[in-house]
Write a structure and sequence with these properties.
This protein has 11 helices and 9 strands. The chain is α/β, with parallel strands linked by helices. Helix 1 packs parallel to helix 8, helix 3 runs parallel beside helix 9 and helix 6 crosses helix 7. The radius of gyration is 17 Å and the shape is globular. The C terminus is likely disordered. Bound molecules: zinc ion. The site of zinc ion has 6 residues, from loops.
């Protein structure tokens, strides 16, 4: 039943020629209270996936307080550490401060890379350049205070990014990362198996998958071990986003593999 719903959605998206990016925009917006779907066009400087020729995939997790006070999904964190799976976690600055103690385990493991996900998780498109800069700077300070390292990657709250937001992020030394494969984990109607099947079948070389580690995902911790096992069986390796996009450098690309 739920699998059928997912298949219907995939068919619907294909019928309209929509790429997963658009699906991700729809999914992000669907989670907004009173939010309306926003379609994010391709923006220079905004990275949605890595090189397609690799067998590497980046798992990413958003952690923000868009719904009540923050909480770390310790079951998800446990799966990453237990299966030794590198991942990139985008932290809301305020959220990170709220759960600083719970984050210690993840922060002390070099498997996990942390990115900036703004401070209060606002709708950045509605803010002035100055306010955006303040949001991102405040998050940089907060995240460094909690995990001990200043992020170099940024993911916009709700996936809402345009050239202006991207330029501000870039001016602070942050690379803007979106994703090409939304797992759909905030959707309470998707079963664990539906998420496993969807992500395992849609992931390809260079994919940046997005899930949640703030208890917003309903079945994330249950689906994750099988997704990791399935993709490893297919010959994929999980890497952090920084590692995935480092290969974009021409010198690396020219090297035979
Ligand atoms: Zn978020």
């Amino acid at each position: 039943m739920k699998g059928e719903r997912l298949r219907r959605r995939a068919r619907w998206l294909r019928a309209f020629g929509l790429r997963p990016l658009v699906a991700s925009a729809l999914i992000s917006a669907a989670a907004l209270p009173g939010g309306r779907p926003r379609v994010v066009p391709d923006i220079p400087g905004v990275i949605r996936h890595g090189p397609r020729k690799t067998r590497e995939i980046a798992l990413t997790f958003d952690a923000c307080s868009s719904r009540g006070r923050g909480k770390l999904d310790t079951a998800v964190a446990g799966v990453l550490l237990r299966t030794r799976t590198p991942a990139t976690v985008f932290l809301g600055g305020k959220w990170a401060k709220d759960v600083a103690r719970a984050l210690r385990g993840l922060a002390s493991d070099s498997l996990i890379e942390f990115g900036n996900h703004a401070y209060m998780h606002p709708h950045l498109l509605t803010l002035s350049d100055d306010s955006i800069r303040q949001e991102l700077r405040k998050a940089q300070r907060a995240i460094k205070g909690v995990v001990g390292k200043k992020p170099v990657l940024f993911r916009a709250p709700y996936g809402e990014v345009d050239g202006r937001v991207a330029a501000v992020a870039e001016s602070l030394g942050l690379t803007v990362i979106e994703y090409d494969l939304p797992s759909g984990d905030p959707d309470s109607l998707l079963s664990e198996q539906a998420i496993v099947r969807y992500v395992s079948s849609m992931a390809r070389g260079g994919s940046i998958i997005v899930m949640h580690i703030n208890t917003r995902g309903w079945h994330t911790a249950d689906a994750l071990p099988e997704i990791i096992a399935n993709l490893r069986r297919k010959g994929y390796t999980f890497v952090t986003v920084s590692r995935l996009i480092a290969q974009e450098k021409p010198a690396e690309r020219a090297r035979p593999r």
